[in-house]
Every structure is written in C-alpha cells, then in structure tokens.
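Board notes, transcribed. Complex of a protein with 2-oxoglutaric acid.
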Amino acid sequence: MADGLKIEPRDALSRLLRDERSDSCFRLNHYPPCPELQALSGRNLIGFGEHTDPQIIPILRSNNTSGLQICLRDRTWVSVPPDQTSFFINVGDALQVMSNGRLRSVRHRVLAGSMKSRVSMIYFGGPPLSEKIVPMPSVMKKGEESLYKEFTWWEYKNSACKSRLGDNRLGLFEKTTANATQ
Ligand SMILES: O=C(O)CCC(=O)C(=O)O
Ligand SMILES: [Fe+2]
C-alpha cells in the first residue's frame, strides 16, 4: 500500500500501528445460526448493521462462512466470498483521510440467518489517540488541499461515540459536503 500510494517515509503508516501508544484493538464476532427467524421474517436478517470502520486498517478473517457484504457506490450490496485462507483487508475512515480520499472507507454489513454459525476476527489498526489525522504530505499533489478539517484520533473517536453505527461519521469532518451520504 505504501508503495502504491508512494508514501514517504515508507513506514509512515506501519509506524503508527507499531507505536506502543497505538489505539489498535481486536474484535471477535459470533453470529449464531437462526434459520427459523430468517424464515419467519421473510427477509434478510442483519447480524451487524451497515457502517464504516473508523480506524486506519481493519484486517478480517472468518470461519469460511458467508455473510459479509460491501456496499458499492450505486448502493447495491455485494457479498464478500468467504475464504479461510485469506485476509479481508479494509480501509478505515482514518486511512481515507490520510490518503485524502484516494482510498475509500467502504461501508459494509453482515447478514445473519444462515444455517451455519459465523465467527469473524478482526484486527483494527489504529493510531495513538493524540495523532493528528491529516493527509500524508507524500500522497498530495502540488497545491492539493485537504478535503477534511484537521482532527486528532481522540476527537474522531469521541465524535463517533456520539453517533449511530450507520451514520456517515466522516461527513462531520469534510470541508465541503458536510453530512453527505457515502
Ligand atoms: O463480522 C464481520 O465479518 C464484520 C464485522 C465488522 O464489520 C466489524 O466488527 O466492524
Ligand atoms: Fe466493520
């Protein structure tokens, strides 16, 4: 990723995750099977509502069970094929800002109700709380301006705590289209 974005120094992102004050965390989700409920309701059951991940980089692996979906620009949902030999690497809100919108924090959700229990584990790589979340100078073109107001990771988390899961939390920090939906 650092090479693709021509990030200088090359470890600018990984340094934040390796920092002993890094606000990274690990989450384990379990979605029990509930085919009866699914049949009764007659529609998709949501196991984890739609949202974007706030951190820099979430890395996910599941127990080879479907359910995870991502939302495309046209608002259609596409299933991520389960693969227990691969990691699903996502872009968090912070990385969207640090790349000045070149990488997009993808809205995703999990459908429940299948016959099989789904377990997922996710490492969320986050920066130290005091870190200013701003576009990395090396990704910016000459004269390019940040699309976002300046904030620290602590300020972003604090604001996210007051929002609802599905809100476009980054909208509050966008310079032009505040509160625009993604
Ligand atoms: O369980 C999954 O596959 C995804 C869960 C998720 O999006 C999250 O924990 O942020
Ligand atoms: Fe997520």
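Residues 51, 53, 108 surround fe (ii) ion (ligand 2) (CB under 6 Å). DSSP finds four helices and ten strands in the chain.
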